Amino acid sequence: STRKECSLSGCRPTGPKLTEQTQLLKKLRQEQNSGFCLFRVLARSFGPFFLKGILFLIFHDIFMFSIPQVLSLLLGFMRDQDSDLWKGFMFALLLFLLSSLQSLFNHQYMYSCFTVGMRVKTAVMGLVYRKSLVISSAARQSCTVGEIVNLVSADTQKLMDMVVYFNAVWVAPIEIALCLFFLWQRLGPSALAGIATVILIFPLNGFIAKMRSKLQEVQMRYTDSRIKLMNEILSGIKILKFYAWEQAFLERVLGYREKELNALKRSQVLYSISIASFNSSSFLIAFAMFGVYVLIDDKNILDAQKVFVSMALINILKTPLSQLPFAMSTTMQAIVSLRRLGKFLCQDELKPDDVDREPYSPDGDGVVIDSGTFGWSKEGPPCLMRINVRVKKGSLVAVVGHVGSGKSSLLSAMLGETEKRSGHVSVKGSVAYVPQQAWIQNATLKDNIVFGQERKESWYHRVVEACALLPDLEILPAGDSTEIGEKGLNLSGGQKQRVSLARAVYRKADVYLLDDPLSAVDAHVGQHIFERVFGPKGLLKDQSRVLVTHGLSFLPQADLILVMVEGEITEMGSYLELMARDGAFAEFIRLFAGNERKERSHRGTRKSVSRLSMTDFSIDLSQEQLISGDRMSSASIQTMEAISDTEDQEQEDLGKLTEADKANTGRVKLEMYVEYFRTIGLALIIPIVFLYAFQQAASLAYNYWLSVWADDPIINGTQIDTDLKLGVFGALGFAQGVSIFGTTVAISLGGIIASRHLHLDLLNNVLRSPMAFFEVTPSGNLLNRFSKEVGSV
Ligand SMILES: Nc1ncnc2c1ncn2[C@@H]1O[C@H](COP(=O)(O)OP(=O)(O)OP(=O)(O)O)[C@@H](O)[C@H]1O
Ligand SMILES: [Mg+2]
User: Fold this and answer.
1) 196: domain range?
2) Going by CA atoms, what residue is nearest to atom 1 of ligand 1?
3) Based on the domain organization, do 416 and 563 belong to the same domain?
4) What is the tens place of the pLDDT at every residue in 273-327?
């Protein structure tokens, strides 16, 4: 009920924390007139910080590229026997300094990028939140809640990614060009061979990435269907067990799982290829370059200077090579996100001046609408026409009418949620609104009523009593500290309405807009609430109340009755006046009074029937528990005893609807690891270990070989056996690449096998658990087990 109000006051920035956002907002407002462009606004606000980051990046690059040059000088010094010793020390010191500075600036750059990214993200997020609260009703129809959630979670993240990685888009080509330039200086035209390799590796990785994303889509589709099925199973577990359908469903789930894992397996193999090709890319480049270099001319010799400086350059080359495709794709995605965000932020807003909000004053009218016309959208016919209402301070106005006659719309107009076409609306003082659909948060019952207000026990008790919630509190396991499940799961429709009403009453507003708050409660409870809350002696007797109702029996006590027909107020007056006029209202009353009498007797019997079945059901349940208790293994009896040991705590936990998710979040037990590795099996683990060792050895050997080669004495201006050396070098490099591939494939296969077993065990265990397990374990937790944790394994 107070939600609407929060939303209305929420658009006004509070406190100094929001200054940055308010400035941004102001700019946005201005921009809106002159062809709004989110990017421009963001660039203007965050551009300077971003430029600072770029400055760091440039420094970083300068240092990075001077390292190979100094290295070359150092190596030259080592070869030259008769140069001064201090030069060597100076080069070494310079090398050290340059590396430190490079890393310093790199981290400064990353830091500034991430902070700017964070700020952009939070600012845009704030804008989206604000917008989603004030968006006009017409625009709300065009964008779903899911879209907005997506905007907040995914699109803002993309924006942040872009801020962080965007620089790579232009820096990486420059870096690559510089690397190649320096390589050319060292090795001459053989550097072209390196370029050719780069050009070859690139499309391969791009192709693999595309294939993987396709496979991922396939896999996600299967995962989605599996989770959906799992959700259905868990929500219908009672029926499922009743018919002993576990096995059939188990097979269906496993079928999906199998397909999902197949897609995953293929994607993992591709991933291994790309990892291997990336890891051996520097080798491939070096191999191609050195190979061409020594083969084209016998006079070309590889000395230490050439080898190590080239290797250093190739290592530099690796980073931009890997970053570039990623940076390009993030930028592309971010541009799409930017467009979506811009479109959303451009949507029409509710106009805050549609409704005049005046401060509370003890006399005058609470709500006034003068010749108002309202629509749900800018175009189309208006939903309310010729509305003239005056709600006197402290009076009770009842609104009646057929379904869809515009009663809720009238309240929305008073709240300023509809589009005002003409007329004048003014509301004095604070407003509390009870929506037709009760809105309940996942919190305790008490928190749902107090709703962040000050706690006043005596007032709270009066409210709870007046809203007829006391009998419910007795039924609920822990009274008012009972946790209410997701979307008010464990409350009945009537209970939800009463909680929603109690929240509004507790709030002590000046004007109450009540949209059919008694529609889902029994007639006698409705009577009680009317007397104690809305009626002339109720808690709200001094406030202005607008009550939409279908309960005709309350109408005689209303000060004013509005009869609505197709968006117009056709009749207005007190009950007696309207009856005396003998118009549509009187007819309506006569028609419905008859119906209601019938209905009431009917409803009475139905209610008692449902009561009865409730008790039947609880008997069923205890029997079922007894049965499952018979079957309980000694282990579960032990846990039962353990539970009774901790009875005190149990009392406390009683109100908690759901057992806290007792997953071991901290350390994983050693046995779990053992179990994990056992499922993978020795047949895979030994090759993994072996391959890994081999890969390391190959990498060492290949670097060693290169240094041996470089140290080779030069005879007659040539080195001997270059072909052999090149061959060994190549073989070692390829061996390393292949073993990297083998290792990653084996590891991912092991992971898949383990995950298959775990999922099977989990599924078996869950489907065979007794019913009691499902009562204490929220299905959300179980679903999480099935989706997230199986995935992370
Ligand atoms: N959020 C909305 N956006 C667009 N149109 C709406 C919206 N809410 C209601 N309407 C339209 O306004 C008209 C009046 O609906 P309203 O909800 O005011 O009826 P009502 O009198 O409250 O009916 P009920 O007794 O069923 O609650 C209907 O034709 C409906 O289609
Ligand atoms: Mg309605």
Assistant:
1) 170-324+670-793
2) 137
3) yes
4) 877 777 777 788 888 888 888 777 767 777 777 888 888 888 888 788 778 878 8
